[in-house]
Design brief:
single chain, 464 residues, alpha/beta, 32% helix, binds N-(aminocarbonyl)-beta-alanine, binds zinc ion, Hydantoinase/dihydroPyrase, metal-binding, D-hydantoinase/dihydropyrimidinase, dihydropyrimidinase activity
């Protein structure tokens, strides 16, 4: 049951140092130079490699019923793909349909997640409001390890939260010691712009970014931040894709507000030229919201990560295959929104972040695990290599290379937005809860081995 990782450089968010790491059961039990280990221990040679906390992807959608279909990846295939890429924990979303009870939806998602091969935990979306929602938020925080609630400011006529819901839910979050998170896009504007474009006969995927320009995102980001300011709550903005939203976050933080921002690997790497393809399948495969943006916005996002105004990196992993995307063949607004990435996030961010000198290895750890663990209150259990932390570890070979392709990926969907990109810096071994789940290209994911991770509230819960 013991594993010793020998001779590597341990990288935590605060420093990097030479050390062996000894794991017993699902925990790290010693970190230091020339450690003794039981004779029966499995030895992993990490010389010339980095030993880092397993990645935390704070934004995925496995098994999601969405836009008339269900994502291609379930909790097994999605988390297994994550393990292959060095991500050992995901934070997924329970998304009740309007009028569905929060508790019913929560238990539905917990049931689907029984298959997970890696650890998981949930944000719960507030898609409507009444007294039962108020009550169930309390139950979720008190009894079910939920400390974050999600608000979709987009997706009108579906899961969009109006201002009344935002205000009441943010207030309730404050009372409970939970953190509100938002998908910031003005859903009414998106809806009207979609109708305008369709009326003009502009029905193809190239209209998708036109219906969701940066100002639509920035309006919602500014509104969510203003609501949080008035109510004195923190707020976490998911998938920040444009300079204007980043500026809103930067401004609020400079004024002393506790605002966090998340960047997606896709938004950091891929630009909006993908929507100009004549090939419907290719362009539709990139339809996600907010859309991919220009290189100028990409550069701003990197600056946000470097400057500490964006804190986490995620994928918004939400895969649909070509047949599912074809639902929008004659109307881009019906293309199921979402792209994959859970397997590739760590490698593409290392390659485009560390190899280019934008991020140090410790900064990489911050934005791929430690910050998410701290913001969502599972630190130091996750996001740290230290005695007592979970043995979720990625041994990272900075010289290893891989050319990303849908042909070799482990997740479903049959498409990869990073197709053909060769990355330098890959996981040679992944440990999840003290088990080797990825080793030298071999995936050893076990269905059902993942655990639900409770996330305590940020203060003792006294509210009813
Ligand atoms: N992002 C996306 O296009 N699909 C998943 C749902 C969401 O996060 O908005
Ligand atoms: Zn979203
Ligand atoms: Zn999402």
């Amino acid at each position: 049951m013991s594993i010793i990782i020998r001779g590597g450089t341990v990288v935590n968010a605060d420093r990097a140092f030479k050390a062996d790491v000894l794991c017993f059961g699902d925990k790290i039990v010693a970190v230091g130079e020339n450690l003794d280990a039981p004779a029966s221990a499995t030895v992993i040679d990490a010389s010339g490699q980095y030993v880092m906390p397993g990645g935390i992807d704070p934004h995925t959608h496995m098994n999601l019923p969405f836009m008339g279909t269900v994502t291609a990846d379930d909790f097994f295939t999605g988390t297994a793909a994550g393990l292959a890429g060095g991500t050992t924990t995901i934070i997924d979303f329970v998304i009740p349909s309007p009028q569905q009870s929060l508790m019913e939806a929560y238990h539905q998602w917990r049931g689907w997640a029984q298959k997970a091969a890696g650890d998981y935990t949930f944000h719960v979306a507030i898609t409507w409001w009444d007294e039962s929602v108020h009550r169930d938020m309390g139950t979720l925080v008190r009894d079910h390890g939920v400390n974050s609630f999600k608000h979709f400011m987009a997706y009108k006529n579906a899961i969009m939260a109006d201002d009344e819901t935002l205000v009441k839910s943010f207030r309730r979050c404050l009372e409970l010691g939970a953190i509100p998170t938002v998908h910031a896009e003005n859903g009414e504007l998106v809806y009207q712009l979609q109708q305008d474009l369709i009326r003009q006969g502009l029905t193809g995927p190239s209209s998708h970014p036109l219906s969701r320009p940066p100002a639509v995102e920035a309006e919602a980001a500014n509104r969510a931040i203003a609501i949080a300011d008035v109510l004195h709550t923190p707020v976490y903005i998911v998938h920040v894709s444009c300079q204007e939203s980043l500026e809103a976050i930067t401004r609020a933080r400079a004024n002393g507000q506790r605002v966090y921002g998340e960047a997606l690997a896709g938004h950091l790497i891929i630009d909006d030229s993908v929507y100009q393809s004549e090939d419907f399948e290719f362009a539709a495969a990139h339809v996600m919201s907010p859309p991919f943006r220009s290189k100028q916005h990409q550069a701003a996002l990197w600056h946000g990560l470097q400057g500490g105004n964006l804190h986490t990196t995620a994928t918004d992993h939400c895969t649909f295959c070509a047949e599912q995307k074809a639902a929008g063949k004659n109307d881009f607004s019906k293309i199921p929104n979402g792209c994959g990435g859970v397997e590739d996030r760590m490698a593409v961010i290392w390659d485009a972040g560390v190899n280019t000198g934008r991020l140090t290895p410790s900064e990489f750890v911050k934005v791929t695990s430690a910050n998410a663990a701290q913001i969502f209150n599972i630190y130091p259990r996750k996001g740290l290599i230290a005695v007592g932390s979970d043995a979720d570890i990625v041994v990272w070979d900075p010289q290893g290379t891989r050319t990303i392709s849908a042909k070799t990926q482990h997740n479903k969907g049959g498409f990869n937005v990073f197709e053909g990109r060769t990355v330098k810096g890959i996981p040679s071994t992944t440990l999840a809860a003290g088990k080797i789940v990825w080793h030298q290209g071999e995936l050893r994911a076990v269905e059902g081995a993942g655990r639900h991770i409770d996330r305590p509230a940020f203060k003792p819960v006294t509210a009813t």
